[in-house]
Specification:
Strand order of the largest sheet: 11-10-9-5-2-1-13-12
Largest sheet: 8 strands, parallel
Structural class: alpha/beta
Number of strands: 18
Amino acid sequence: MRPQGHRAPTTPRVPVTAPKGHTTVGQTSSAPAPAAETTAAPWWRSAAVYQVYLRSFADGDGDGTGDLAGVRARLPYLAELGVQALWFSPWYASPMVDGGYDVADYRAIHPSFGTLAEAEKLIAEARGLGLRSIVDIVPNHISDQHPWFRAALAAGPGSPERELFHFREGRGPDGSQPPNNWVSEFGGVPWTRLPDGQWYLHLFAAGQPDLNWAHPAVREEHEAVLRFWFERGAAGVRIDSAGLLLKDPELPDFTVGVDPHPFVDRDELHEVYRSWRRLADEYDGVFIGEIWLPDSERFARYLRPDELHTAFNMDFLSRPWDAAELRASIDRTLAEHAPVGAPATWVLCNHDVTRTVTRYGRAESGFDFAAKAFGTPTDLALGTRRARAAALLTLALPGSVYLYQGEELGLPEVELAVEHIQDPMHARSGGTDPGRDGCRVPLPWAAAAPNCGFGPDGGTWLPQPAGWEAYAVDRQEADPDSMLSLYRTALRLRQREPGFGDGGLWWLPSDAAVLAFSRPEGLMCVVNLSTEPAELPVHTRVLLASGPLTEEGRLPRDTAVWLRA
C-alpha cells in the first residue's frame, strides 16, 4: 500500500478553458503509438486488453452469429482504439449450452465461428497490428459432448473412463437423492442422475460435467492444450473459474460458514498452477485467472512469482458508485498485490456482468448476481456520465485494464423478452434471473445498415433493441464528444504519456467524496463523486476530462479529469 496524504505539487495553477465534451492537450495522432517493449516492464503489467465476445462482435458470413471473419475485418478498428491485446471468449467446438464455456474439443473451432486455420490467421494478423491474443480455457469442466464424457457414459459404473469425472451413487434407500447438499453456481442441484443410477457432478449446467483434477490424465491433457495454443501464437490464456478445479475427494456435505469449502480455493490447486507456469515460461506466455475470493491473503497466493501472472479484480467491478467504496477497493487491491509483486487488474464489466452505463444509473449501483431482477429502474443519462468518469478512473490506476466489447460505445444492458433469453442462468433460477444475455447483444457498427452493420444479412442471434443505431460506431466516430472518442483519446494518452500503467499511486488531499491521486511523472487523476463541483489540485495541464469543467475550472459531479503537475 502506498503512503497517503501525499502533498500537492507547488507549481502555480495555469488557467484552463475546457471545451465542450472532453479536453485534451497536444496533438493526438489518428493511430495509437506503438507500445514500448522492455525486459524491465513486460507488456502484460500495463496492458489495456479488449475482451471479444465472439458471438456478438461482428458477423462475417451473414448467419447472424459473430465469427472469426468478422473479427479479422474489424482488426483495424481495434488497433485504432488503442488497446494492446485481445482476449477471445471460447471459440472451440461446443454445443453452446453455456455460450461456448462447455467445450467439446479444444483443438477445433466451432463451425459457426470458422476454422482452426482462420484462428491461426487471426492471431497472426492481430500480432501484425501490434495486438496480442489471449485465448480462454475452461478447466473446471467440459461439455457432455466431449469424447471423454461420452466414453464415460458408455463404459458404465466403476469404469476407468468415469474416474476422469465425479460419478457417485445417490443417497437414500434407492439412491434417488443427490450424493451431497452442494448448490450449483447457476443455482439448484449440481448433480444429474443417469439411467444406470449413478449421479455426476456439474457445478454449472448439466451439460458441463466437472473434471476430476486428482486424475493425472486430466492434468496432462490440459497442459497439452496449453502447448497447442501457445504454439499457434497465443500470448496468454485466461482461466475460467480458476479457483474451483480441485474438490475434496470425499465430496462431503457443506454448510457455509461452518465447514471448510470442499471445492473453492483448495490448497492443492497451487501445484497445478505452478506446473502451468513452468510450461508458460517456455513460451513467454501469460496467465490471467478468474478468481472470486473474499480473503485477500489467499487471493494473493495465486499471484506468487511461480504461479499466475495476474487475476481479475472482481471486487472493483462489484462496488457501487461511491468514493469510500471505490477507494477501499483500490487500497485493498493494491495491498493484495504488493506482497507478491504482481500488477493489479481493473475491469468495469465483462460478459457476465450488467453493463456499466446501466449499473451506474441505478439506485443500487454495485453488482451482485443475487440482486439481478427484471424491470429495475435506470437513469441512463446519469449512468453514462458516471461510466465516462469511471473509464478515466480505471485507465489511470496502476496495472493493466480490461475493456469489454461495447463499453467503448457506452452500450446499456438490454432487457430481453423472456422468449429470446438463451442463458441457462435464467432457466435454472426458475425465470426470476434475467440472465447475462443483456450484455451480450450484438454490437452496432453502422447506424443505417441492416442489423446496425453487425453482419451483411440474416438477422442477429440475439435481437438488437429499438434505438441501437444511436450507439453505432460510425455515428460515434463523427462525434468528438462520444463515448468512443473519449475511449480512443484516453487509450492513446495512456500509451503515450508517462506515468500510466504499472507503478505507484499516492492519494492526494481531497473531500471525502472525491478520489484524487497522483502517479509517477506528475500525473494526477481526480474523480468527483460528490454533489457539488470540486476544486482541482495545482496543475499545469489538463490532459483529458470526461466532461467539461465549470467556467471557474472546477470539476463537476460525476466527472473525472487527468492532470499533469
